[in-house]
Amino acid sequence: MYYVYLIQCEDESIYTGITNDIERRFLEHKNKIGGYYTRSHKVEKVLYTEKYKTRGEALRREAQIKGWRREKKLKLITS
């Protein structure tokens, strides 16, 4: 299983990524050992996750979400 996830950063920005272990990956981001963006943007919490059977499906969805404006990401989170 692969997960697409959205994390809220301290500056209210939203980071989007994929993983096969949400808890491990969140801790990596929190400890500044995962992801270039989150090394300079302190992470606060996981806002949203989606589950996929293959890495390819997750990568396609991640790319789609990364292309969205903040408002559309927030609508996804609240839906």
Describe the protein's architecture and organization.
With 79 residues, the protein is α+β, with helices and mostly antiparallel strands. The protein has one domain (2-78): 3-Layer(aba) Sandwich (GIY-YIG endonuclease), CATH 3.40.1440. Helix content is 44%, strand content 30%. It has 4 helices and 3 strands. It has helices spanning 22-30, 36-40, 55-66, 70-78, and strands at residues 2-9, 14-19, 43-52. It has a 3-stranded antiparallel sheet with strand order 2-1-3, with helices on both faces. A hairpin with a 4-residue loop joins strand 1 (2-9) and strand 2 (14-19). The longest helix has 12 residues, at 55-66. The protein is globular, with a radius of gyration of 12 Å. It starts with a strand and ends with a helix. The model has no long low-confidence stretch (mean pLDDT 95).
Q: Which structural class best describes the helix and strand composition?
A: alpha+beta
**Morphology call:** globular
CATH homologous superfamily annotation: GIY-YIG endonuclease
Mean pLDDT: 95
Shape-level CATH architecture: 3-Layer(aba) Sandwich
Strand content: 25-35%
Give the spatial strand order of the biggest sheet: 2-1-3
Quickly name the level 1 CATH class.
Answer: Alpha Beta
β-strand number: 3
Helix content: 40-55%
Query: Domains counted in the coordinates: how many?
Result: 1
Largest sheet: 3 strands, antiparallel
User: Under CATH, the topology is which?
Assistant: GIY-YIG endonuclease
Secondary-structure element pattern, one letter each:
EEHHEHH
Figure out the total of helices.
4
Distance between the termini: 22 Å
pLDDT < 50 stretches = none
Radius of gyration: 12 Å
